């Protein structure tokens, strides 16, 4: 049991090391640009732990979590879905348009919107999957192109002649406002956060994380997916239809990507407008790397990124450029890669030392493998 | 002394792979290392090649103490190594693989023309017959083995380590290789090699060091003073096994019927040409042939991994249109020739590797769910019954020695009562003791009605295990041989088409 604990601590050591390393780099950058690192950090922490900011952090994290999860599903199969970005924007816009056009009773309305979003995301990702399976087109290239096309389609449809309407009292345009029945109620999780509620979608996010873990580790399908990711040739010999797996896992990845825009759409903006957040797919890639494609890791990474994003709002008021946070996020991702390697090596050495210590303490002369048949 | 390893100790989690090993190799000699699976041979060689750092001990090369941080340090002092498992990039050509990491420069660009010339020279000089422009993924195991050897020669190694270089070569090829090695040794090179084939060891090595459970049992034995039996006893403490199948268990029920099977290469040439055969329940059909005559393609076509024409019937049911998974479910077990490429998930624990290839069947799964407890329990059984030496079933397959990986695969494929076992080199890389155990398992299953398609480079194994024996040459079954009367020598010449009158 204590060996387990040690190994758990070591697993945690890598991301912690990365964050510490990132903090050092950021401090240097801050110092060079003439701001005190300690003061800046304490500003961020003070502000970041106010109830309102915590709510906002959780909300950002919910969105990031879906994005990273979508990337991670594909990653586990060695597929690089760069197209999460296009998938979620197209999905959110079409789902918003559908949601604004119909009137349905409460939960059904929400369900319809979510299902439409997942279907659109899945379909858009499936294009890349099918291209790879039938034509051998690299999914990296096709999803990048599909991102551009999605941008074009969204721009085309988001026009007052087509799906969009003028938003009252501004010169923004967006899809028709989704009526009350299609809203996802927020949760008052954080005491003292006033009107700033937590997205109800945080629960869906947690469920999605659990489903991810169960799917990958407990099902035959998940086994085939991981096997293909580890060795395609061995998977083929074991009877996995790799082409089919490519399409299916892209579809799943796209369906999860379809959820990325939902917390914002159904919990805050109720319409897809020109100001709908973009670029979340790329943040998702960074967080999936940070979290090592594991839901718990991804959740921690998403919270960290959410915290940095939201607490940095205080910096501007104090005339510190809040781009410093972007630098920090970048450095974290880079140092994670380095830190995992360092910890891996340390683990190996420590393990060997432990074995030799136990062997010499045990005093059993034979160099036979522990526990193996004599 | 070319190499002096003294007091080498190396530990892995749960295992001491080497403990206080001493190995001294004279310059200009062939030195063999013998020992059972997991004894620590590969580990010791990886230490000499700079791939692993010893926890204790010293290394001296040509009398000078050295300490290697990586293989490039070892290459710099003239050491080259051919690994037990191939280290080639599949999607590159032979030329690119050989040149990789030692790029010959001509100004700024890589001098491919010069490299190709040099490869040709070496290939011709040692009769390796390697085409510099072939893609690695198109090559069989034997060819890949030769590419590995060529790679080492190309880099000008003076001390050459060969970790089981002959496991997939048929005797003629082994003889050729050894002739080449003797040539090298006459030129002053030093060869260290590992093999489980004791006859081979005795015929080619000047000295032999035996390792058992991580320590040297006997160092630098003069090969003229021992015989195979004594050597086997030193290694495993048991006698030499013989692959004799006693009474026939062949029935008249068809287990596998292959008709007019043809496989074409990408350029349309038939690599398996109109092959037909039937294996009955309780029968072992051996296929003898020099590597690269269509055996790999034949097997992959039967497994549904490669497009082919013709029909395949399993126990009377046509399975031609089924995919690999369905064929496996219908009762085909498969021991692949390249265990790393087709048999294992190296980073996954042993119990997950138990599931591989049997994902849809008990005890590994229940409906759409993986049955972890069932798979783990059955992995324990395989580890026990097939004597897989491992600290546990949670270690990664990567951490097992080559022979123990093989035992795991054979155990897995014999599980679930297969109707037919397609076995390519089933005892490749396993020690004499384990080889006997695998043969016993095969014989017992055969008595229960298992049909086996046996492909092997080990002619004793082929002759001893087979009820029926066919010879494959350039993709065609050219001769039937009676295993009861044939000798390895006459089988060997049949395999090269000597009797064909070509
Ligand atoms: N990377 C590794 N991590 C953990 N254990 C390892 C690793 N490599 C080897 N071992 C263990 O060290 C021992 C010696 O392995 P090694 O590969 O040297 O055996 P070997 O003599 O070459 O056997 P074989 O004849 O089967 O190839 C084995 O018990 C093996 O499980
Ligand atoms: Mg070995």
UniProtKB/TrEMBL annotation, chain A:
It comes from the Bacteria. It is a multi-pass membrane protein. The chain crosses the membrane at residues 54-75, 87-104, 110-131, 140-158, 198-216, 246-266, 324-343. Keywords: Cell membrane, Membrane, Transmembrane, Transmembrane helix. GO terms for cellular component: plasma membrane. InterPro entries: ABC_transp_permease (IPR001851). It is found in: Cell membrane. PANTHER family: ABC TRANSPORTER, PERMEASE PROTEIN, GUANOSINE ABC TRANSPORTER PERMEASE PROTEIN NUPP. This is ABC transporter permease. The lineage of its organism: Bacteria, Bacillati, Actinomycetota, Actinomycetes, Streptosporangiales.
UniProtKB/TrEMBL annotation, chain B:
The lineage of its organism: Bacteria, Bacillati, Actinomycetota, Actinomycetes, Streptosporangiales. SUPFAM superfamilies: P-loop containing nucleoside triphosphate hydrolases. One of its GO terms (cellular component) is plasma membrane. It is a peripheral membrane protein. InterPro entries: AAA+_ATPase, ABC_carbohydrate_import_ATPase, ABC_transporter-like_ATP-bd, ABC_transporter-like_CS, Dihydroorotase_CS, P-loop_NTPase. It comes from the Bacteria. This is ABC transporter ATP-binding protein. One of its GO terms (molecular function) is ATP binding. The keyword Repeat applies. It holds the Pfam family ABC_tran. Residues 3-238, 256-499 form the ABC transporter domain. The keyword Transmembrane does not apply. It is found in: Cell membrane. Keywords: ATP-binding, Cell membrane, Membrane, Nucleotide-binding, Repeat, Translocase, Transport. Gene3D superfamilies: P-loop containing nucleotide triphosphate hydrolases. It comes from Bailinhaonella thermotolerans.
């Amino acid at each position: 049991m204590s060996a387990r604990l040690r190994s758990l601590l070591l697993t945690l050591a890598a991301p912690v090391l990365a964050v510490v390393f990132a903090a050092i780099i950021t401090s240097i950058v801050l110092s060079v640009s003439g701001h005190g690192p300690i003061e800046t950090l304490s500003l961020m922490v003070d502000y970041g732990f106010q109830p309102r900011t915590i709510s906002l952090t959780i909300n950002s994290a919910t969105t990031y979590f879906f994005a990273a999860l979508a990337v991670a599903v594909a990653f586990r199969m060695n597929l690089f879905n760069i197209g999460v970005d296009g998938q979620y924007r197209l999905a959110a816009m079409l789902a918003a348009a559908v949601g604004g056009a119909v009137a349905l009773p409460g939960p059904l309305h929400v369900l319809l919107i979510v299902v439409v979003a997942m279907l659109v995301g899945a379909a858009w990702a499936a294009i890349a999957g099918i291209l790879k399976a039938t034509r051998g087109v690299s999914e990296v290239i096709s999803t990048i192109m599909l991102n551009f096309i999605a941008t074009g389609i969204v721009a085309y449809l988001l026009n007052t002649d087509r799906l969009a309407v003028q938003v009252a009292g501004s010169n923004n345009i967006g899809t028709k406002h989704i009526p009350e029945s299609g809203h996802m109620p927020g949760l008052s999780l954080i005491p003292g956060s006033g009107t700033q509620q937590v997205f109800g979608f945080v629960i869906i996010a947690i469920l999605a994380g659990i489903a991810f873990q169960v799917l990958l580790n407990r099902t035959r399908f998940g086994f085939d997916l991981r096997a293909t990711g580890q060795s395609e040739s061995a998977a083929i010999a074991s009877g996995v239809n790799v082409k089919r797996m490519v399409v299916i896992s892209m579809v799943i990845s796209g369906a999860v990507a379809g959820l990325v825009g939902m917390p914002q759409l159904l919990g805050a903006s109720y319409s897809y407008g020109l100001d709908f957040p973009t670029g979340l797919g790329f943040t998702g890639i960074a967080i999936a790397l940070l979290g090592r494609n594991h839901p718990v890791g991804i959740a921690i990474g998403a919270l960290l990124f959410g915290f940095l994003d939201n607490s940095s709002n205080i910096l501007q008021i104090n005339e510190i450029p809040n781009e410093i946070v972007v630098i920090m996020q970048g450095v974290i991702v880079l140092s994670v890669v380095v830190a995992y390697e360092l910890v891996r090596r340390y683990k190996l050495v420590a393990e060997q030392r432990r074995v030799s210590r136990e062997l010499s303490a045990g005093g059993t002369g034979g160099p036979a493998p522990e526990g193996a048949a004599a | 002394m070319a190499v002096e390893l003294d007091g080498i100790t190396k530990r892995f989690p749960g295992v001491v792979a080497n403990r206080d090993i001493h190995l001294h190799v004279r310059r200009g000699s062939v030195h063999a290392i013998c020992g059972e699976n997991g004894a620590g041979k590969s580990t010791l060689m990886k230490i000499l090649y700079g791939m692993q750092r010893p926890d204790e001990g010293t290394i001296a090369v040509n009398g000078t103490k050295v300490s290697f941080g990586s293989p490039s340090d070892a290459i710099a002092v003239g050491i080259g190594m051919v690994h037990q498992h191939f280290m080639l990039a599949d999607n590159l050509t032979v030329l690119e693989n050989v040149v990789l990491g030692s790029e010959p420069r001509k100004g700024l660009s890589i001098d491919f023309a010069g490299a190709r010339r040099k490869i040709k020279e070496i290939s011709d000089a040692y009769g390796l017959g390697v085409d510099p422009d072939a893609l690695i993924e198109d090559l069989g195991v034997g060819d890949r083995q030769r590419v590995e050897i060529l790679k080492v020669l190309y880099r000008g190694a003076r001390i050459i380590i060969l970790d089981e270089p002959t496991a997939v070569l048929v005797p003629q090829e082994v003889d050729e290789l050894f002739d080449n090695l003797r040539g090298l040794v006459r030129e002053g090179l030093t060869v260290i090699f590992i093999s489980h084939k004791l006859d081979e060891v005795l015929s080619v090595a000047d000295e032999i060091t035996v390792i058992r459970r991580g320590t040297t049992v006997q160092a630098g034995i003069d090969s003229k003073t021992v015989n195979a039996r004594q050597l086997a006893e030193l290694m495993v403490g048991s006698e030499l096994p013989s692959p004799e199948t006693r009474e026939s268990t062949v029935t008249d029920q068809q287990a596998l019927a292959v008709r007019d099977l043809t496989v074409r290469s990408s350029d349309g040439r038939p690599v398996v040409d109109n092959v037909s055969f039937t294996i009955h329940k309780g029968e072992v059909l051996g296929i003898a042939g020099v590597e690269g005559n269509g055996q790999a393609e034949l097997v992959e076509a039967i497994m549904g991994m490669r497009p082919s024409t013709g029909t395949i019937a399993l126990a009377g049911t046509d399975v031609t249109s089924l995919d690999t998974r369905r064929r496996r479910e219908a009762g085909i077990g498969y021991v692949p020739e390249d265990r790393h490429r087709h048999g294992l998930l190296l980073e996954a624990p042993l119990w997950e590797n138990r599931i591989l290839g049997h994902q849809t069947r008990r005890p590994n799964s229940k409906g759409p769910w993986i049955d972890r407890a069932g798979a783990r329990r059955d992995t324990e059984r395989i580890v026990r019954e097939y004597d897989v030496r491992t600290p546990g079933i949670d270690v990664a397959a990567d951490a097992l020695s080559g022979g123990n990986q093989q035992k795991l695969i054979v155990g897995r494929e014999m599980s679930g009562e297969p109707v037919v076992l397609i076995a390519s080199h089933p005892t490749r890389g396993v020690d004499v003791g384990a080889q006997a155990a695998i043969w016993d398992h095969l014989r017992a299953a055969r008595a229960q009605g298992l049909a086996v398609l046996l492909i092997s480079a080990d002619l004793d194994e082929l002759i001893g295990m087979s009820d029926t024996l066919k010879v494959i040459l350039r993709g065609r079954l050219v001769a039937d041989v009676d295993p009861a009367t044939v000798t390895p020598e006459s089988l060997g010449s049949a395999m090269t088409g000597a009797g064909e009158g070509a």
